[in-house]
Amino acid sequence: MKIVLMEPLGVAPEIIERLANKLRDDDHTFTAYDSFTTDTDELIRRADDADILIIANHPLPGQVIQADKNLKFISVAFVGIDHVDTDACKEKNVGISNTGGYCDDAVAELAVGLTLDCLRNITECNAAVQAGLGKGTLAGNELAGRTVGIIGTGAIGCRTAEIFKAFRCRVIGYNRSVRPRAKELGIELMPLDEVMKQADIISIHTPLTPDTRGLIGEKEIGLMKQGAILINTARGPVVDDQALAEALKAGKIKAGIDVYEKDPPLPTGHPLLGVSNLVCTPHVGFDTRESIDRRAEMAFENVYAYLAGKPIRTML
User: Fold this and answer.
1) Pairwise CA distance, residues 313 & 316, whole Å
2) I need a surface site. Which of 60, 136, 252, 255 has the fewest CB within 10 A?
3) Total-model pTM
């Protein structure tokens, strides 16, 4: 079969060669592209006649999927697959596997790190020292004993809950279904509005779907306690940025945000630019050296499994 890596995976070339050699040894052809593109015509050219595509987190439009007459399977080196035209895949009976789990620790650790920054004013303290100042009014608050609300108790949400529990936090959560791991961890599931009211810290870990777009809007943010913290390391559109910005400006809450409608640099006039009570990172939650190497391994494992007739991590 013809297998094409459509974009770089952020790992050393020797890692790709090692992973690709197993395919070549089984008489498959493998081509890897070392640059990103969002140009549809170029994507069509790269995918031409491929049986299997490997992509990361850049969009794969329906036109590309439809144009590739031989396409049977896509391995997505990412957790979400909302950047792939799944309707086109369904129409052509193209299977999809993701690399869910590759960044559970990375994202969970950043969520907790953003929380600690908001509680202990770490970014502001650094700025004060660098400016030749003292602590002034920058005394912070402790994480121990706080109530944490996990929105989305999948793998990353549960890993985040596990870390918060190590800080002796009470963990509550919202999810449309009861996950065994969430039950094992003792996460108290309750309606979304109740989580928003009770939690001192809200940490969002839900995927982006039509049902979750705008899930945390003006009403939900309005239910949060004075001084509560909102953390989003999931998907930007799950939170209404304008409603969040207004609550931050009013001094009602703090927030730590890693995800946006589109990755930074943010456009001039974006509601979160220049807002106080906010710590931002440029979508780095998934991005550690360990997780990126793990992601590449898993993306190729998906291909090996598909070729063996035993697909894993299937999303479609």
Assistant:
1) 9
2) 136
3) 0.90
Beta bridge partners of 188: 172
- 137 and 269 belong to one structural domain: yes
Burial class for 83, CB neighbours closer than 10 Å (0-12, 13-18, 19+): middle
Q: Is 314 within a domain? A: no
Same domain? 64 vs 204:
no
* CB 173 within 8 Å of CB 149: yes
| pLDDT class of 250 with cuts at 50, 70, 90 | very high
- Shared domain check, 257 and 232: yes
Claim to verify: residue 194 and residue 206 sit in the same structural domain: yes
Cα 89 to Cα 41, 55, 309, distances in angstroms: 18, 14, 19
Residue 112 sits in the same domain as residue 238: yes
Residues 29 and 177 grouped into a single domain:
no
**For residues 77 and 101, what is the distance between their CA atoms, to the nearest angstrom?**
11
pLDDT in tens, 264-281: 999 999 999 999 999 999
Alpha carbon distances (Å) from 236 to 90, 213, 217, 240, 292:
26, 9, 12, 8, 21
For the stretch 124-157, pLDDT in tens is 999 999 999 999 999 999 999 999 999 999 999 9
Checking if the pLDDT of 255 tops 90, the result is yes
pLDDT at 74: 98
Enclosing domain of residue 232 = 104-280
Spatial contact of 306 and 52, defined as CB atoms under 8 Å apart: yes
* Number of independent structural domains in the chain: 2
Strand partners, 314: 97
Report pLDDT for 80: 85
Q: Flag whether 42 is in a domain.
A: yes
CA-based nearest residue to 43, from 5, 88, 94, 17: 5
**What confidence tens digit (pLDDT) does each residue in 18-55 have?**
999 999 999 999 999 999 999 999 999 999 999 999 99
